[in-house]
Design goal:
Number of helices: 4
Shape: globular
Strand content: 25-35%
Helix content: 10-25%
Radius of gyration: 21 Å
Structural class: mainly beta
Distance between the termini: 27 Å
Low-confidence stretches: 1-51, 85-94, 254-258
Mean pLDDT: 73
Number of strands: 17
Largest sheet: 5 strands, mixed
Order of helices and strands: EEEEEEHEEHEEHEEHEEEEE
Length: 267
Amino acid sequence: MNHAITKIVGAAAGVTLLAPGAVAFGDTVEAAAPDASGATWSHVEGTSSTVESPVVNVPNVSGGFSYQQSVVTPNWKIAEVFQKAANALCNATTELTVTAAADWSLTVSGDVENAYTATLGELAADGEQTTLMGCSCAANTPGGAAVINAEVTGVPLATIVERAQPLPGVNTVTLTSEDGYSMSVPFDYVMARTSILSYMINDEGLSASVGGTNQLWIDSTAAKYFTRNIVSIELTAEDEAPAVPGSEDAPENQYANRPNVGITGVS
């Protein structure tokens, strides 16, 4: 999750504040305290991914800490990071398709009573949703730029699934992209989370931000699982469900959304 730090005024005695390389877009960090020589370190502020600050030791200071998570990353900033390496980020294994989202066709099949094919426009008529969500690249490091907040608009995966009427025992959702890439996730995992098949980010088509025509966003999940340009969703009852993203059984268990600013030590 992208924690947007709004203000730090001092901290406990001996706190070390570290902002190496970057802070999240829209973040503000400020402090006022005398250093060991009696001089005052008065202000450190950043609103882009290029702010650099040294480690600053602030002794004998008291104060408060607050944060909020409603900052939205602008689309130009998202595109700067997530379209820079299209073949590596968010499973974009081919050129990013750009087409009218409403005309994009999606097939839902498998162990269901009502297999069907519909356009995103038709699915949106059943229930479009806009939600503030976070996205972090699986390889993002603390202070890295590949972490965003965005207003995500699309069709809830639950709406798509319920229309297909899955049979008892379904435990796997397999998402297949236009280029043949597929990703399987546990049925219960995605149904228990806010999972949206998006076609707009911050009120614009995906080509203005992450690229492509559609992309599944899943809350509290690394962007590795955010499959894009999905053409089919298969719901199946397997002998064993896929590993839960981030669990010990998943080979990707080191992936997690990471905040960009933090306190590294207190004494």
